[in-house]
Amino acid sequence: MERAVHPITQNHVWVDVTRHNSNVPPLAVKNPDCLGLLNKLDRSKDTWVQHYCILKDACLYLYSGIRSTHAHGGIYLQGYAVREQAYGSKKSTIELKPPTDEFKTFYFCADDSAENKRWILAIKASIKKWRPFHQVLQDYMSLPPEETR
Prior knowledge:
- This is PH domain-containing protein.
- Residues 31-128 form the PH domain.
- By secondary structure, the protein is of the alpha+beta class.
- It is built from four helices and seven strands; from the N terminus they run ααβββββββαα.
- The protein has a single domain, classed as Pleckstrin-homology domain (PH domain)/Phosphotyrosine-binding domain (PTB) (PH-domain like), CATH 2.30.29.30.
- Helices cover 26% and strands 32% of the residues.
- The N and C termini lie far apart (42 Å).
C-alpha cells in the first residue's frame, strides 16, 4: 500500500541529460541537432511568440533569447509526427502532432519557408533516432544468432 501512495521513481540518464540541458544557456548545449529562432503559436492569445530554440535528442528546448541562462520550456517529441502545414495567415508552419489526443499539438514557424524545411528535416531526423524499445528489441531478436553474440 505504501508503494502505491509513494511510487518509487527511478532516475534515468535521459532525465539527467534533459535536466542538465534545460539548466544551461542555449549555446552551452553540446552537439544540438538544430538551433535558431522559431515562433510558437500561443493558442490562448492567438499570437506567435518568438523563442530561441535548441533541438537535441528529440527534445525541443525553448529559450526567451540567445542570452538566456536556462530554458523556460521544452517539448519531448518522441512519437510526434512532423509536417509542413498552412495555419491561419501563415502559408508555411511546422505542425508537431502527438501520437495520441491526450497530448497537445504544437505549431511553430520560422522566418521563411526554407528555414521551416530545415527545421522539419532536423526534427524528423532527431525523432527517428529514438525508436520505441519494443521496436529495438524486435530488430535485435530478428538478427541471425551469430550477430547477437
